Amino acid sequence: MSDPIVPRPERIDVADFKPALARLQRRMFLRSSLSIGALSMLSGCTMQDGDTVDKVLWAMSHWNDRVQGWLFDRNRLAPTYSASQITQPFPFNAFYPEYNAPEIDGSSYQLEVSGLVSDKRPWNLAMLRALPQAGQITRHICIEGWSAIGDWRGVPFKTFLERIGADTTARYVGFKCADHYYSSLDMATALHPQTLLALDFGKDPLPAKYGYPLKLRVPTKLGFKNPKHIAAIFVTNTYPGGYWEDQGYNWYSGL
Ligand SMILES: Nc1nc2c(c(=O)[nH]1)N[C@H]1C(S)=C(S)[C@@H](COP(=O)(O)O)O[C@H]1N2
Ligand SMILES: [Mo]
Q1: What tens digit of pLDDT does each residue of 32-84 get?
Q2: Whose CA is nearest to atom 6 of ligand 1?
Q3: CA angle (55, 247, 113) in 5-degree steps
Q4: Which residue spans within the chain are E strands per DSSP?
Q5: Is any atom of ligand 1 closer than 6 Å to the C-beta of 229?
Q6: Residue 7 domain-assigned?
Q7: How many other CB atoms are found less than 10 A from the CB of residue 237?
């Protein structure tokens, strides 16, 4: 039962992230201790054809999302760091090389809003900058086995959801990006006090490679749940999936 979503915590050089990683490892231990044999007993199928195995594994993964959602403590904060601890240079990562990062014209940029919200008017950058801003220095952890501390600033996502009149009893918030990446979050994480609609990296607007003009910074999730170059945000009860999520990475991926 190979699991593409298991990060390699031994390659992450962090002492202060130990509690979060220990929780993650505990959850993964619980999952990996279920053998194919146990799975076939539980699911009542022989797990002989690939399709069935696939279906059971996906069902397990969605069950795992629910359990992780229940375990999520909406008040638990991700660790924060001092300015001297910021990683320089901060790594770039995407499903393409850095020179292919989309170049977006900030002056004509519009953020689309749709789904279960009362105000669907699009947003430009000046409107987003006029909302209350907050900063954070937190650690980004990529599933590929690296982590880095960065300094992001922007609109607390909860504030933004309130401004657009989002139905916060809905299950998901989905994101569509200018590079055709996409992702989604559970509502509890969307409303978490450290989830930030980031406009700046350090003192300056986000550079193209880090997601200009807008990215979601979610320090309670793995890196791939932090969409860059956001073009559209929607609130929904229909599971939206994501670029890596749809290829087997665990959707919840909380820390
Ligand atoms: N639009 C978009 N967002 C994305 C990605 C991407 O390919 N496209 N990659 C994700 C992954 S896997 C990581 S680790 C981080 C990397 O962000 P960084 O370039 O700021 O380090 O962006 C995430 N968000
Ligand atoms: Mo990543």
Answers
A1: 555 556 656 666 666 566 677 677 778 778 878 887 877 778 778 999 999 99
A2: 94
A3: 110
A4: 112-115, 134-142, 146-156, 172-177, 182-186, 196-201, 204-205, 215-217, 230-236
A5: yes
A6: no
A7: 12
pTM of the model: 0.83
pLDDT (0 to 100) of residue 128: 98
Residue 92 Cβ < 6 Å to ligand 1: yes
CA 117 to ligand 2 center in whole angstroms: 29
Residue nearest to atom 20 of ligand 1 (CA): 210
Identify the domain containing residue 211 by its residue range. 83-247
**176 confidence band (pLDDT: 50, 70, 90):** very high
Give the distance (Å) from ligand 1 centre to CA of residue 66.
24
Q: What is the tally of structural domains in the chain? A: 2
Q: Helix, strand or coil for residue 230?
A: strand
